[in-house]
Amino acid sequence: MPTPATLDALLVEERVFRPAPATVIEANVKPAELAEAYRLAEADPCAYWEQAALELEWHRKWDAVLDDSRAPHYRWFPGARGNIVHNALDRHVHIWTKNKLALIWEGEAGDCRKFTYFELYREVNRFACALRALGVSRGDRVCLYMPPVPETVVAMLATAKIGAVHVFVFAGYSAKFLRERINDAEAKVLVTADGFYRGGRCINLKTVVDEALEGVRGDAAETVVVVRRTGDDIDMREPRDLYYHDLLRQESPEAATEIMEAGEPLFWLPTSGTTGRPKSVVHDHGGYMVGAHHTFRTVFDIKPTDIHFCTADPGWITGHTYGVYGPLLTGATVILYEGHPLYPQADRLPAIIERYGATIFYATPTLVRMLMRYGPQYPKKRDLSTLRLLGSVGEPLSPEAWMWFYKHIGRSNCPVLDTWWQTETGMAMLSPMPISVLKPGSVGKALPGVAADVVDAAGAPVPPGQGGFLVLRKPWPGMFSGLAGDEEGYREAYWEKIPGAYFAGDVARRDEDGYYWIQGRADDVLNIAGHRLGTAEIEAALCAHRFVAEAAVIGVPDKIKGEVAKAFVVADPAWTGAFPDADALAADLRGHLRRELGPIVILRGVELRETLPRTRSGKILRRALRAEELGEPYEYRSDAEE
Ligand code: WT7
Questions:
Q1: Which member of 11, 16, 244, 433 has the greatest number of CB atoms within 10 A?
Q2: Would you say the CB of residue 626 lies under 6 angstroms from ligand 1?
Q3: At the fourth CATH level, which superfamily is domain 525-630?
């Protein structure tokens, strides 16, 4: 019989993996350099980040590296001028990367399109000219509701090139969600596609757009640019809707790049928080560029020969930073795949790695668990020998999944880099480097220049091995510059929870060696297959149903998705007149949630209740519901929950 002490030891992951000598010899950042980076970043963080900024081209250099006089409104590289697209695209057409592949795209049906840097440059310029002709100028917002197709990358870069701001709404969101984001952004133009292929089906996006634009405020989305992808018969409304290909035909392949101040916005990206409304995280041209470039070059160890396969949709921050900007800033080749990862069968991702000779595979724990379920025979069918690095992001990667990934995708030969970061951080913050000693299940140490800590509610560091709140004590260049139109929310949600630090919203522990282990969210935010969803947002959506009086949503563990939502609903008694039974009502609620938020909310169950447990001040006790659901003990803590 194991004693409690040995049981504890069994729960602690003790395996370590050392880097192969060749990896160390060839790494962009070798052990002595990494030690020096930590030393410099510790002694003089601004000097460290200044070095990183000097790796890029600027129209004008900064007056200072960091202006923290209005903290927490930090300004990186004030006085500097440039444009991220100059570094991501323009400069490549004057150097050897000109005719190198920038983008390899594979459609779900197996069709393939490739763009060299020069070709991508010309296409982006054409679209930049078209956007200018549509009246879009510096500072204007352009909303993107796009599937993973090459034109998505083109639209992002063209928008940024003319100094406008892209606001990406992931194509899995509903018409209602899209409409609200268009309204929030007062977007001038919406770029979309007729549809795309996923899971063997043709998904029509244009009908969602048409629905979203009914009732959009004022003159928002006056023009809709539609990329023809599926060739489906869609409703084109004149004069609002224009085909992308028609627009581009007469445009010049040369366009001037707008010179931006470093602090001017590059994009907004909606994400979930603890309130009923999503927030739009704002990133700028200067700091974000430095963060994306530096981390991609060092953590992903980019070499001229690398072919980077990032499975994230361009519509998420991972797609923005390490699917588009990071790869192009470093002159790498990136693979973008349109469809479902298991279509037509479970070897699709390995097949893509084999077909294009991918050297880096950046995926999510949900994908790893999906592949695990089908078994190693699928990756075994494919030649994965070109791979040299594996990456994971978005959710905790358990030691078991880590080992499977390492063994069956990485052939026990590739470091697994579990990178922790957020939409707000813009760049990887905690991560091993290729030369690091790896511990399965850990996201490694804080990267140089990143001042992470694990603290209690008062902000005091907790001892090694103990759980606490993950915070960041110093600003970093990739950081968001704020929440669009919500100064108060910015301070309140991130900078006032823990004195003197950025509150990430995660629970973590740090071991004796300084390795971090992420345990999950500390707030009421769910992580469904790596997608962040606020329980308050789902509850608000449920409450918009005609028969829902009250709703509470909790996260419950799921073998593949990591976590899924479960809803507890107090229904208006009149529901019995409209539905034959509770199952029918639940089915209607599911459909309702899909329409309100989109298919990204995965709901395990809907349970009808007479009442919901509440604190004395009336807040829903989600923790009590969760404890009951999981059969765990629960104790009411009036101090913590009021
Ligand atoms: C939240 C941020 C930026 C990547 C995509 C998600 C969770 C992120 C990890 C990781 C465990 C992780 C955290 C974080 N998360 N990376 N390696 N291990 N959890 O971006 O939608 O802004 O969500 O994702 O909970 O706070 P996001």
A1: 433
A2: no
A3: ANL, C-terminal domain (3.30.300.30)
Please state the domain extents for the chain. Answer: 525-630
User: What is the average pLDDT value for the chain, to the nearest integer?
Assistant: 95
Out of 267, 405, 421, mutate this one to test ligand 1's pocket (max ligand atoms within 8 Å of CB): namely 421
pLDDT for residue 158: 99
**In 3D, which of 340, 265, 317 has the Cα closest to residue 425?**
317
Probe ligand 1: pick from 393, 510, 535, 561, max atoms within 8 Å of CB? 393
Mode of pairing for the β-strands spanning 141-145 and 165-168: parallel
SS3 193: strand
Regarding the beta carbon of 393 and ligand 1, being less than 6 Å apart is answered yes
pLDDT more than 90, % of the chain: 93
Residues 6+ apart with CB under 8 A from 247: 127, 130, 133, 225
User: Is pLDDT above 50 for 9?
Assistant: no
The pLDDT tens digits of the residues spanning 414-454 come to: 999 999 999 999 999 999 999 999 999 999 999 999 999 99
Distance 331 CA to ligand 1 centre (A): 26
CB 234 within 8 A of CB 243: no
C-alpha–C-alpha distance, residues 32 and 514, integer Å: 18
The answer for residues whose C-beta is within 8 angstroms of residue 414's C-beta and 6 or more apart is 387, 388, 389, 390, 406
Give the pLDDT mean for 329-352: 98
Characterize the bridge pairing of strands 333-337 and 101-106: parallel
What residues does 165 pair with on adjacent strands?
A: 141
Contact 108, 197 (CB under 8 A): yes
Distance, in Å, from the CA atom of 122 to the CA atom of 295, rounded to the nearest integer, reads 27
Question: Is the C-beta atom of 419 inside 6 A of ligand 1?
Answer: yes
pTM of the model: 0.96
Q: 291: how many CB neighbours lie within 10 A of its CB?
A: 29
Closest to 318 (Cα-Cα) out of 431, 226, 448? 431
The answer on pLDDT for 253 being more than 50 is yes
What separation in Å is there between the alpha carbon of 99 and the centre of ligand 1?
35
pLDDT band at 1 (very low <50, low <70, confident <90, very high): very low
- For a mutational test of ligand 1's pocket, the pick from 420, 424, 480, 507, i.e. the residue with the most ligand atoms closer than 8 A to its C-beta, is 420
